[in-house]
Structures are given as structure tokens and as C-alpha cells.
Design goal:
This protein is of the alpha/beta class. It has 8 helices and 12 strands. Strand 11, helix 7 and strand 12 form a beta-alpha-beta unit.
Length: about 300
């Protein structure tokens, strides 16, 4: 099924902020995972000292678009001032590894807690410093849906690398993780780093914007609309694409080909990868436990990080 067809069948769900199958909708009415103490959580750090590139002031005020009190989720929209929030682990656990976290939401909203703050706290629990990226949404008229978010992701990677010592992370162990549209953003950042998509603004932009590894959790938009076996133009996978961990379910409404096609491209270029395809799980579960084994993905991701990142 082509993504162009998905637009009509799932447009209401995208507007609400997530692509959700009925099998995982209960994850949004259940409680969020219990918080664990953090050593340090920063105040949000602006990515840009002034107006973000290309912003025209024609987007409304940032707000939580969730109006259903029974739906326990924050759905941010109208983001015009992108930020990074730093979540640091307890010192005795710190692995010296950093990950930029990109929530999903169809490039219309950001599932800011489900696929953001909750993920950062989980990363802290395994000794990883997390950087929550609040990137620009919704889609800007006349631009590719990923264009402003990619600028924000590239800028975030360079800022983190430029301040790696300050935040206690190794400059060669800075990765990116994304859910759904955030997974597409993470994949795009993993393949577009030789040339910035904005004019450098300060010394931070002298640092590389290539992530050292990537985790794509139920990623969207990783195939062409007219051919599920081919990647879109913004994903020029090469031998320089970083090692990647991918999770998806066969019954995901976004279509499992997003994971399979991207993984095949990685394999063709001999990029280290780990792929987990679960028979059931749907979409949009984050860390919230559901009835299917797909929600155990953090165990698999932790094992991958231990073997591929922590130990090197």
C-alpha cells in the first residue's frame, strides 16, 4: 500500500498527532512509565540565537493540541523556536554516550512525553545522556516536510558535539533516535551530513552533524510513495551511513516495508544493522507497555547499545 493512500485513510490520526492502530491505542490511556531520579535536567536550550532559518512568523502560538483528558499524552504543535533539553544520568551510571531524541507525530505535532521525555528518562536509566529535540512542526508551506526539522537536527548534532566535554559525552559516541516521523528525521540526518541545509551560524557548526549511530523505532516515510521497495531521494544510504537499530511490527499501519527497505539498503552498503520485526504491535507505543512483545524493544536496544556502542 502506498503512502499516498495512507494520507487519506489516516489523515484524522495524523492531525491528532500520531498514527495509531487500535491494538496500541490503549497505551495512550494508560499511565506513563514511572520516573527515575535524574542527576541533571537542563532548562531548554535554544538551537538558534535568533529566528530559526526561514521562519516567517506565520505560525500560531506553540500549544498542546491534545484536548482529550482521557488521552494521557502531550501533543505539541506550532513549534517555531526549536530547543534541546539535556537529561544527564547519575554519575555512577554514565557511559559517556549521548543520544538526540526525536519524537514522532507525522511532522504535524510532537508526541513530547510518549516519545520524548519518557524516552530520555529511560536512556538515563541505562547510563546514556539524552538530548530531547523539540523540532519545528507542523509542515511549512512550500517546503519538504522534513526540511526545517532536518536543519534543527543537524544543528542539534553539531551543538552537542561542540559541547561534548561539558556534558560528559564522547564526541564520537553521539547518536540519534526517532519514532515514526522522528524516525524518518533520524534516518535523513544519518544520510545528509556532508552538506548542511542551512548557512553555518557560529563555531558549533564547524563540528560534524553526522550521528555516530541511529535507532529507528517504527519509522515512517522510509519508502517512495510509488514503490515500497525503493528509498526516497532524501535517504542516499552509503557506506558512511552510521550503524543502525530498527524496530517495527508487521501490522504497523505505516507499513513494515519502511523498515525492510531501509535495512536492505544498509545491508547492500555493508552498514552494521540490527533489525527486529514483530508480528504484532501496531504503532505509537513508545515505552508504554502493551499486550504485544513489540513493546519490549528497549531490552533489545539496550543489548545492541552495550555491544555496539558502550563497549567500543
Amino acid at each position: 500500500m502506498r503512502l499516498s493512500l495512507l494520507c487519506s485513510s489516516l489523515s484524522l490520526l495524523f492531525t491528532a498527532g500520531l498514527i495509531l492502530s487500535a491494538s496500541v491505542a490503549t497505551a495512550l490511556t494508560g499511565d506513563a512509565p514511572k520516573s527515575t531520579p535524574q542527576d541533571d535536567v537542563s532548562a531548554p536550550i535554544p538551537l538558534w540565537s535568533g529566528v530559526a532559518p526561514g521562519e516567517k512568523g506565520d505560525i500560531g502560538e506553540e500549544h498542546d493540541s491534545n484536548t482529550d483528558p482521557n488521552r494521557k499524552i502531550i501533543l505539541l504543535t506550532n513549534v517555531t523556536k526549536p530547543t534541546l533539553t539535556v537529561y544527564r544520568p547519575a554519575k555512577e551510571k554514565d557511559k559517556g554516550v549521548g543520544v538526540i531524541v526525536c519524537p514522532g507525530g507525522g511532522y504535524h505535532i510532537l508526541a513530547y512525553d510518549l516519545e520524548g521525555t519518557e524516552i530520555c528518562k529511560w536512556f538515563n536509566s541505562i547510563g546514556v545522556t539524552a538530548f530531547l529535540l523539540k523540532y519545528r512542526v507542523p509542515i511549512r508551506k512550500g517546503l519538504e516536510r522534513y526540511a526545517p526539522p532536518l536543519q534543527d537536527a543537524q544543528r542539534a548534532l553539531s551543538i552537542v558535539r561542540s559541547r561534548a566535554k561539558e556534558w560528559g559525552v564522547a564526541p564520537n559516541k553521539i547518536g540519534i533516535l526517532g519514532f515514526s516521523a522522528g524516525g524518518h528525521l533520524s534516518a535523513t540526518a544519518s544520510n545528509q551530513f556532508d552538506k548542511r541545509t542551512y548557512t553555518p551560524v557560529d563555531d558549533a557548526d564547524k563540528e560534524s552533524c553526522r550521528p555516530d549511530f541511529a535507532l529507528l523505532i517504527y519509522p515512517a516515510y522510509l519508502t517512495r510513495e510509488d514503490d515500497l521497495t525503493k528509498l526516497p531521494a532524501e535517504l542516499p544510504v552509503s557506506t558512511k551511513t552510521p550503524p543502525t537499530f530498527i524496530v517495527m511490527a508487521q501490522d504497523d499501519p505505516v507499513k513494515v516495508e519502511c523498515a525492510l527497505t531501509y535495512a536492505q539498503a544498509l545491508q547492500h552498503e555493508k552498514v552494521p544493522l540490527e533489525l527486529h520485526i514483530y508480528p504484532k504491535g501496531g504503532h505509537g507505543y513508545g515505552l508504554r507497555k502493551g499486550a504485544f512483545v513489540a513493546t519490549d524493544w528497549p531490552k533489545r536496544a539496550t543489548h545492541w547499545l552495550q555491544n555496539e556502542i558502550f563497549s567500543k
